Amino acid sequence: MAIQIPVREPCPYCENLAGRYSATAGEPPVVFEDDDTLSYLSPASLGGMPGHVLVIPKRHVETIFDLTREEEARLAHVCATAARVVRDILDPDGLVVLQRNGIAAEQTVPHVHFHVIPRREGTPFPPTEWVEVIPHSERMALAHRLRSAWPDAL
């Protein structure tokens, strides 16, 4: 039995990479970008505080099972670096790195991605109530802070 992947056309992450942004989220507040990956702030916080970073490969890949070894290594390194930068700049009580594959695992976007989520103690995870979108200007300012702390040699 194959893992069922959600259908979402067009892929919102590929749309972002093509420079087409949703009216709700706007242009992604980029924390880090290279030839193969993009890391940016999610519109909504899931851990009770701002700083939820999404890490994606630029190549459209639906699940972790479809990545090349090189992509696996690069994404793992970028995720670990994002976690360190979020920890150092935001001082969360904890941090979750999350990746889902298939509808049964609650994958909603058919493009492999990793969540780096800073957490505040006592905040339900996953959230049990609607989480408001953080204003774009606040996300852009926070992305600038995180980007400025990103190590030059990655």
What does this structure look like?
Helices cover 27% and strands 16% of the residues. The protein is of the alpha+beta class. The protein has a single domain (12-149), classed as HIT-like (HIT family, subunit A, 2-Layer Sandwich), CATH 3.30.428.10. It has a 5-stranded antiparallel sheet with strand order 1-2-3-5-4. Strand 1 and strand 2 (37-41) form a beta hairpin. Helix 2 crosses helix 3 (136-149). The longest helix is centred in the middle third of the chain and has 22 residues, at 69-90.
Described by the principal axes of the CA atoms, the overall outline is globular
CATH architecture annotation: 2-Layer Sandwich
Strand content: 15-25%
Determine Rg (CA atoms, Å). 15 Å
The CATH topology turns out to be: HIT family, subunit A
Total number of beta strands = 5
Mean of all residue-level pLDDT scores: 95
Write the H/E string, N to C.
HEEEHEEH
Query: Please, what is the oligomeric state?
Result: single chain
Q: How can the largest sheet be summarized? A: 5 strands, antiparallel
Give the CATH class.
Alpha Beta
Major beta sheet, strand line-up: 1-2-3-5-4
Structural class: alpha+beta
Task: Give the end-to-end Cα distance, rounded to a whole number of Å.
Answer: 39 Å
Uncertain parts: none
Number of domains: 1
Number of helical stretches of at least 4 residues: 3
Helix content range? 25-40%
